[in-house]
């Protein structure tokens, strides 16, 4: 959903003259005015490649698009575009802005390079469209080869949409189909923490509709950065039903690390789930609140139709779930995570597991990858060098191979953290994490990855294990102009 807060670098006050606004909007990153025709020439693929990609995806057959290369005659004289772009748009994000943005981009670039994610899935583009271009390049088409090598991607949507596309692009590296195209972001979600972390801002202002050229120019000229991603594997006793979010898929049984001591008993049969996250994983009461909010939004979508309404409902769930009043309640289910959870970590460049003693008053644990959380907050904080040295921490970055692990005590503590009055409870920095959970008096607990919550069944007899390890390759991101706005 779109934020009503405009992005500072893009929004101009009404007191400025329209000629000045248009001049600024027409400028590229280098400060030179962007010609519409020149920009279109830089980003638009030759017609035969656009049609080949389109037909390959429509038929779900790489060979279906090749005839455009044969029918196109001599392509040796064709020059590849300087910075070809493909745009994925979540047309349902940002209210009406997603569909309007899609229409404007298609008017500028053509239908074949702008895809509605409700009609074309990113894995289909990778499996068929991009593969068709690669197959044309493989038979000696230099234009197709250079277009493939120079390709960049724009994702217009929220963090979940961006993560979805990044995950599909990551398959290219796994299959040896390098280079993986760099990805830029147009923020259309609610939190937009990935967008904030890479300088694309926290919202897509309605006034951006007149600045499409500027956005596209930033996407092809801005520098690149790297982003870690993290693999989450859940191994739980078989038989319990798990209503998984989109980010988690059931997988084959995984083998647990035998070097690590296991406190509970291992069941004879297990169910395993696997997923990848880019921003954070959390367990505890923050995930419980998010779960309640998502359930309400799915059951009664008319109640959550705007950013302000969402925040009001979310605040109500904070109170309803006991998030703010935990210190006054004796219900065991609302006490600290320590009585159901053991956490081991591996520190950077250290192969040995280390048991971490969790504070007794922690109700929520977060493992954070980005410097932006919950719509631009930084609960880890900007720590002073002396504190980092004392704790054995290093400065946090999104490509350092580490997750920052911190805790919230209760709602009041979390609220003070979110307004930057205090930092969260620092627990550790880790290159790998193992959580072991056993029910006791708990029948269930709540978890979330990148804002997608679920209810995790608990077993009194057998343990549930969660392993988090870094994906061995990094995503390539295009850096925007703004800083966590």
Task: Give an overview in words.
The chain has a seven-stranded antiparallel sheet, with no helix packed on it. Strands 14-13-12-9-16-17 form a six-stranded antiparallel sheet. It is globular, with a radius of gyration of 24 Å. α3 (47-59) packs across α6, α6 (122-138) runs antiparallel to α7 (142-150) and α11 (285-299) packs across α12 (307-320). The model is unreliable at 1-28 and 306-330 (pLDDT under 50). By secondary structure, it is an alpha+beta fold. A hairpin with a 7-residue loop joins β10 (341-346) and β11 (354-356). It has helices at residues 18-25, 36-43, 47-59, 67-71, 97-109, 122-138, 142-150, 159-174, 193-197, 212-221, 285-299, 307-320, 385-391, 411-418; strands spanning 85-89, 114-116, 152-157, 183-187, 224-227, 230-237, 248-251, 270-277, 280-284, 341-346, 354-356, 364-368, 403-408, 425-430, 432-437, 444-449, 452-457, 464-470, 475-478. It is built from 14 helices and 19 strands.
Task: Note the overall shape.
Answer: globular
| Sheet with most strands: strand arrangement | 7-8-6-18-15-10-11
Distance between the termini: 16 Å
Number of helices: 14
- Beta-strand percentage range: 15-25%
What proportion of the residues is helical, as a percent range? 25-40%
Q: How many extended strands?
A: 19
**Sheet with the most strands, sense and barrel status:** 7 strands, antiparallel
> Whole-number radius of gyration?
24 Å
Residue runs with pLDDT of under 50 for 5 or more positions: 1-28, 306-330
Mean pLDDT: 82
